[in-house]
Specification:
alpha/beta, 8-stranded parallel β-barrel, two-stranded antiparallel sheet, 12 helices, binds coenzyme A, binds magnesium ion
Length: 294
């Protein structure tokens, strides 16, 4: 695992027009914040939201939290100005909605470079349309600035003419396809939102399912969703203890010439050791992040 690894358990959307929410986010336990100019902002408020968000990024104060700006699509009246303003402000990432093909995304990457985006500003892509999902593998390798897929499950359910159901069977294929593409090209992959923001049990079930699939974290719509999400997407004490035990047992076995250890009745081979090391590195990164944020 690279030392630059950073936790992205909880990625909170914040309406860009709400100055109070932008301020409040400075003390919220979110790993990352998406300052939204797209769906959470009404057309009347778009220009004012752009100014608020650019000021928030420029002034900072978000500590170790990653700051991402979601712009409007380039096919809207606001997209081009959003992109230019976001590039100049230089957040950790710029999130592009409804990405559908690699060529358009590569062109956007070149545009932000021309507009003065620093090298540290990554591109993140919303995966939320049928065409985008079908092109996931090509999009994932479209440009070196691209570092993350964000699942847009609300748009996807709408476009499929599907329904929101527990277990998310209607969007499973799309979620899996994007995860495969992301992992094949070493991208981060963040799960979609859970709309019923007062339903903690439903949120927990969806976080657990997303984590089991391999998602790095979940996008959220309300601060009340942070605690459950951070808990589920961080390694549990039990998982961390087992990872440490596996590592120690494997080291002991290799010292005596063997290649397979047994911990808690399960075999531990080289590949399990890699997973154990990833879990330990994740836990250490979370501890560092939380120390910086507090
Ligand atoms: N980010 C940061 N702070 C938020 C927040 C968010 N997404 N959602 C709510 N808050 C803050 C509120 O400003 C309020 O702060 P205050 O007590 O200092 O005034 C506090 O959390 C409690 O908010 P609450 O009254 O429970 O919610 P609300 O009725 O103000 O808002 C929503 C509910 C769903 C409208 C709001 O959470 C929201 O707009 N979420 C984001 C939606 C979005 O971004 N959608 C696009 C992506 S899917
Ligand atoms: Mg969307």
């Amino acid at each position: 695992m690279p030392t630059s690894f950073r936790p992205r358990r909880s990625v909170l959307y914040m309406p860009g027009a709400r100055a109070r929410a932008l301020e409040k986010a400075k003390s919220l336990p979110a790993d990352a914040l998406i300052l939204d100019l797209e769906d959470a902002v009404t057309p009347d408020e778009k220009p004012a939201a752009r100014d608020l968000v650019v000021n928030a990024v420029t002034e900072g104060g978000y500590g170790a939290r990653e700051v991402i700006v979601r712009v409007n699509g380039l096919d809207t009246p606001w997209g081009a100005d959003d992109l230019a303003a976001a590039a100049k402000a230089g957040p950790d990432a710029i999130l592009i909605p409804k990405v559908e093909d690699p060529a358009s995304l590569a062109a956007i990457a070149e545009q932000i470079t021309s507009a003065g985006a620093p090298d540290r500003t990554a591109l993140w892509a919303m995966m939320e349309t049928p065409l985008g999902i079908l092109n996931a593998a090509a999009i994932a390798s479209a440009h070196p600035r691209l570092s993350c897929f964000v699942m847009g499950t609300n748009d996807l359910v709408k476009e499929l003419r599907a329904e929101h159901v527990a277990g998310r069977a209607p969007v499973q294929a799309a979620l899996s396809q994007c995860l495969l593409a992301a992992r094949a090209h070493d991208l981060v992959c963040i799960d979609g939102v859970y709309n019923a923001f007062k339903d903690d049990d439903g949120l927990r079930a969806e976080c657990e399912a997303g984590r089991a699939m391999g998602f790095d974290g979940k996008t959220l719509i309300h601060p009340a969703q942070l605690a459950v999400t951070n808990e589920v997407f961080g390694p549990s004490e039990a998982a961390l203890a087992e990872a440490r035990e596996q590592l120690a047992a494997f080291e002991a076995v290799t010292m005596s010439g063997g290649g397979v250890a047994v911990v808690n009745g399960k075999i531990v081979e080289n590949l399990h050791v890699e997973t154990a090391k990833r879990i330990i590195a994740e836990a250490e990164a979370i501890t560092r992040l939380e120390a910086e944020a507090s």
